[in-house]
Design brief:
The chain is α/β, with parallel strands linked by helices. 41% of the residues lie in helices and 15% in strands. The active site is at 82 (nucleophile), 208, 236.
Length: 258
C-alpha cells in the first residue's frame, strides 16, 4: 500500500504545514512556495485521494489529523486555506502543544449559512460538488478565473497554475470530493475556537462570496486573542490574486509573533 507523502521545500528554522482547500492539489500553492521557502521550511500537503496521495483513499477528518500528528514536525505553524482551515483548527484544538501558530486563509469555523451566520447555502455547496464531479476542468477553470477577475496581472500565473492543476494526478475522484463535501457540511467549530491560545492569524478577501468578510467580525468576538486582516479587491484565493501582499502579511506577522 502506498504511504502518505508530501513536499518539503525550503531550509528555514520555522516549519509551516500547508493544507489545501476542497478538490484541488497542493500545486495551487506553487507561487507562494517559491516566495516563502526562502524564509521557512514548508511542508505542502495533498490530502488522500489527490495529487501525491492520489492512490490513497480519502478518510475522515480525525484520521487526517492523526496522519498530520504522526508525520509533521512538532512546533509547526499550520496554514489552512478554506477547508484546510477547518482541519488546521481541529489539529490546534487536539494538539495545542504541538503547534506554534495557526493561519486561516479564506476559512471559517463553520461554512454553512444560518440565520445569524454568513456562509454558503447548503444547496450551493451541493451544486459545487455536482459541478466538480461532472465537469472538473471547467468548474476549477471558471472558479479561478472568477476569483482573479479584477487582477489582470494574474493572467500569466493563472495560466501556469491551471496547466499544473489539470494534470491527471491532480484530479480528485468522486469519493474524495464527497468526503470533502461531508466535512464542509458537518464540521462546526464555533463553540471551540475560543480555546485556541497560539498566535492565530485570519486572512479574508473583501469580495469572497464563500467566506463573506462579515465572518471576520464574528470570529473576532468568538476568539478575541486572534488577529484578522481583510485584503481588499480579492476573493477566495488571495494568495493567487494578491500574492505579494499575502506573503508580506505572513512575514510581518509571524516574525513579530514567534
Amino acid at each position: 500500500m502506498k504511504k502518505f507523502t508530501w513536499q518539503t521545500k525550503g531550509t528555514g528554522d520555522i516549519n509551516i504545514v500547508i493544507l489545501n482547500g476542497w478538490g484541488v492539489s497542493c500545486e495551487i500553492w506553487f507561487f507562494i512556495v517559491q516566495k516563502l521557502s526562502i524564509y521557512f521550511k514548508l511542508h505542502v500537503i495533498d490530502f488522500p485521494g489527490i495529487g501525491k496521495n492520489k492512490a490513497l483513499n480519502f478518510i475522515d477528518i480525525q484520521q487526517i489529523i492523526e496522519i498530520l500528528n504522526f508525520y509533521m514536525p512538532r512546533n509547526s505553524i499550520y496554514l489552512g486555506w478554506s477547508l484546510g482551515g477547518l482541519i488546521a483548527t481541529n489539529f490546534a484544538l487536539l494538539y495545542p502543544k504541538k503547534i506554534l501558530g495557526l493561519i486561516h486563509v479564506a476559512s471559517s469555523p463553520y461554512f454553512i449559512k444560518q440565520k445569524n451566520w454568513p456562509g454558503i447555502e447548503k444547496k450551493n455547496v451541493h451544486y459545487m460538488y455536482n459541478n466538480l464531479v461532472n465537469n472538473y476542468y471547467e468548474t476549477i477553470n471558471s472558479f479561478l478565473s472568477l476569483q482573479t477577475l479584477t487582477q489582470k496581472k494574474c493572467f500569466k500565473d493563472l495560466k501556469i497554475l491551471k496547466k499544473i492543476l489539470f494534470q491527471k494526478n491532480n484530479i480528485p475522484n468522486q469519493k474524495t470530493l464527497k468526503k470533502g463535501l461531508d466535512i464542509l457540511l458537518s464540521v462546526d467549530l464555533r463553540s471551540k475556537i475560543s480555546m485556541i491560545k497560539v498566535p492565530f492569524l485570519r486572512i479574508y478577501g473583501s469580495l469572497d462570496s464563500l467566506v463573506p468578510k462579515k465572518v471576520s467580525n464574528l470570529v473576532d468576538s468568538l476568539c478575541p486573542n486572534s488577529n484578522s486582516i481583510i485584503i481588499e479587491k480579492t476573493g477566495h484565493v488571495p494568495f493567487i490574486s494578491h500574492k505579494e501582499e499575502f506573503c508580506s502579511i505572513l512575514l510581518e506577522y509571524f516574525f513579530k509573533k514567534i
